[in-house]
Amino acid sequence: MLPFVTDFDGPLTLIVPGFAPATCHVHLHTHVDYDPPGSFPLHTGVSLYHLAIALSGPPPCPMLVPMPATIGIIANTVAPSVPPTFVDPAPINYPAGGEPLYLPTSPVCPGPYIFNAFFGNGVGNFTDPSYIEIHISNGPCVANGRFRSQPHPMGDVNIF
To answer: 144-155, pLDDT tens digit by residue?
Structure first.
């Protein structure tokens, strides 16, 4: 039952010209609630408020900029809804400039900048760990990662 705070954790592959492909590690400490907060059963979606973001790994991982205090919204109209597994990924809408991770424009990564994120209730079934998936491109620079929810006393966060 929402709201609660949980963690998403996992690898992100980063490809930047002039560097060997790198595996970065991302940790998202996230408050999950109805949108607007406390509005159940009249909510219009679910909010993911990233309270803290940790990023580590070899170069070029430090090129990524963690942007804590970002809020992504999953609208009810796109929430996972295909029975019986309910694992169809749902797009997460972050406002422009409010993404949890940012890959800055530079001479090596000249743009255009594209950011996409998705939430999944699991891979094969909603009983599997949920995840947040992120895809970033900035010209030839590309970052892709899937961050699984970590064990939590309240259980796994699922969105229906």
So the answer is: 999 999 887 777
